[in-house]
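Budget justification aside, the reviewers requested a transparent look at the raw inputs and outputs of the sequence design task funded under Objective 1. We therefore reproduce one unedited record. The lines immediately below are the structure tokens for a 225-residue chain.
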């Protein structure tokens, strides 16, 4: 039995671009549930259709797509936001990620890159146009500080820590599953459990947490016997 198609919503204030992206994704097997041209309708419609992925432009006229991203990721936990913007400015990328975006793609990306990015975002991966992932992780390294000693760190299991370490190294859920000889679903369960314990929203924030706590510098875990 084949898996259901990834459900998508496209948010962009340019009707021709918006409709063109929606059409391209539909032709490639995605279930495009809705489109929107501004932040207010984006949140309202997303709450109704609850897509797997919202493809979000940052320039939405009076309201920034960053604000729409923040509202959607906070109010619709099961929906991930992939920014598709004409801007590759570092400040725009970092603002979008801090608002909860799972990834960032510039509009110069090819159709194949877009399709791959939407699929990977739906699967829970953090997806960025080449060069931007290093920018995000580099910024998180710069911001890294000693953990607040007044707050006890959440207790992660050994396996959750192993998965977190590999997420910080940029591995996808499928790659982690292959490395640890466990199922893809088990990896996702560990990721979701870790997100809940750490009160984080996505894998980019998980990677930041791992970097701040030095997990990305530790040795790789052994495979389960």
């Amino acid at each position: 039995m084949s898996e259901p198609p990834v459900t998508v919503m496209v948010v962009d204030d340019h009707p021709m671009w918006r409709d063109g992206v929606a059409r391209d994704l539909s032709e490639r097997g995605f279930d495009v549930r809705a489109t929107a041209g501004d932040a207010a309708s984006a949140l309202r419609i997303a709450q109704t259709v609850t897509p797997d992925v919202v493809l979000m432009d940052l320039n939405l006229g009076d309201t920034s797509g960053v604000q729409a991203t923040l509202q959607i990721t906070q109010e619709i936990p099961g929906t991930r936001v992939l920014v598709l913007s004409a801007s590759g400015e570092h400040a725009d990328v970092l603002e979008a990620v801090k608002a909860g975006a799972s990834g960032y793609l510039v509009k110069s990306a090819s159709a194949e890159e877009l399709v791959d990015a939407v699929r990977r975002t739906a699967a829970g991966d953090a997806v960025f146009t080449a060069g931007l992932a290093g920018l995000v992780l580099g910024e998180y390294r710069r911001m890294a500080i000693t953990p607040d000693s007044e707050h006890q760190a959440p207790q992660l299991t050994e396996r959750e820590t192993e998965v977190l370490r590999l997420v910080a190294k940029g591995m996808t859920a499928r790659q982690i599953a292959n490395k640890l000889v466990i199922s893809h679903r088990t990896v996702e369960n560990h990721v979701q459990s870790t997100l809940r314990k750490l009160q984080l929203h996505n894998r980019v924030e998980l990677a930041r947490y791992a970097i701040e706590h030095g997990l990305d510098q530790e040795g790789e875990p052994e495979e389960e016997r």
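The first strand starts at residue 7 and ends at 11. The radius of gyration is 18 Å. Computational costs for records of this kind are itemized in the attached budget.
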